[in-house]
Structure prediction request, 248 residues.
Amino acid sequence: MNDYVMDIFSIINKTVLVTGASKGIGEAISLGCQAAGANIVCLARSPRPNSPKLANSYIQCDIEDSLIYEEIIKDVIKKFGSIDSLINVAAISLPPNQENEHERFSKTLNVNLNAVFKCCDITSRFMSFGGSILNISSIGGIQGFPNNPGYVASKGGLRMLTKALAIDLKEKGIRVNCLMPGYIKTDMTKASYDNLRTRSRRLDRMIIKRWGKPEDLVGAAIFFVSNASSYITGTDLIIDGGWTAKGL
Ligand SMILES: NC(=O)c1ccc[n+]([C@@H]2O[C@H](COP(=O)([O-])OP(=O)(O)OC[C@H]3O[C@@H](n4cnc5c(N)ncnc54)[C@H](OP(=O)(O)O)[C@@H]3O)[C@@H](O)[C@H]2O)c1
Prediction:
């Protein structure tokens, strides 16, 4: 590969902050960015990340706590001098709550949409010109799914928040995009994966005949952090093995 191509895809020495990095997709993206030479900062609520490789880059943080989040951002600036990219992976998918479905809906919106907006807003004040924000939405942000209206609404909202912020942050030179994963095998989808019937029903609609792995998101995440995507903003990239493309 020649120097020009190597250069546009490089994220060496870029400072990349990943929320929801203790496990699953956030862990895979953090490890991928670390391997590609970025300075990574990993956040989640657990005291420690699952991967020991992320231990030195990990800070315990609930993204619902904006004051703590802002303090962390200021510390990151002190340590690295700038933030080039924010990757919003953190989200929840709560089980049904027969007693109080309203509470489930509100909690989901608070973490998956309100807190993510605040992370974007706070971080963008400190980001360098030419920075990139990448939100992890879901195919639930473009199609309806049963039994979890808060999750679907939050992911649809996040997809549109991405487009709104792409406009609002253009003056700061910040691009905002989102990834829309399909069925990826993580703790979040463990119940449907462990149930053979739901696992194979989801598989039936995939063109690429396997459930996704968290690593399937890594290449796209690096692309959106890198200068190779410098003319792309306000867009969403579906990574679902063809699930949403398939009719029959
Ligand atoms: N798996 C899929 O099939 C799929 C499909 C479409 C979209 N997605 C999206 O992809 C992203 C990652 O999902 P995943 O499957 O990797 O789920 P996961 O394994 O449950 O991971 C979720 C991550 O978010 C963190 N988190 C949750 N609430 C948080 C909070 N308030 N503050 C900080 N961190 C928080 C969790 O860590 P702690 O518990 O340590 O805080 C964990 O690191 C989510 O946005 C999800 O909606 C997943």
